[in-house]
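=== RUN LOG ===
request id: a7f3
mode: sequence -> structure
chains: 1
length: 149
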Amino acid sequence: MSFNYPAAVHFQCVKCGICCGDTKEKTRHILLLRTEAEQIAKATSQPISEFTVKIKDKAPYSYEMKKTKNGKCVFLENKRCTIYSARPLICRFYPFELKIADSGKYTFLYTSECSGINKGPMLSKNYFRKLFQLARARSRQTADSKRAS
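=== RESULT ===
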């Protein structure tokens, strides 16, 4: 599979936590695949219902992460993710997102709201290839999990 990606974009996470919750301009929807929710539940020893809300009509996603009263992810503490190694795909991608056109062509887009854009190293095609491969692997894992249930 091929994909388009933004050429000459620089990015480095500045650990501001903006991606982990609502802002004045945007309400975040941290969507999770069923397998991701299961992985987080295992890592935190919490039932899935403790940190998610079940959703419909957002395939392939099955859950949305709950937020605190201030609109932040329930796993964000002091601008740090407490489930970093188990964080969902949507978090791993930020500030990028992968869109598919009607033609079947995949394209990476990014949001300029992230203060890490235009900072740090220029990202190579290999960076986006790894994200793309991760998305495909998670997609297959989800499909396999659905067939098994």
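=== NOTES ===
Residues 12 and 116 are 5 Å apart (CA to CA).
The first strand starts at residue 3 and ends at 4.
=== END ===
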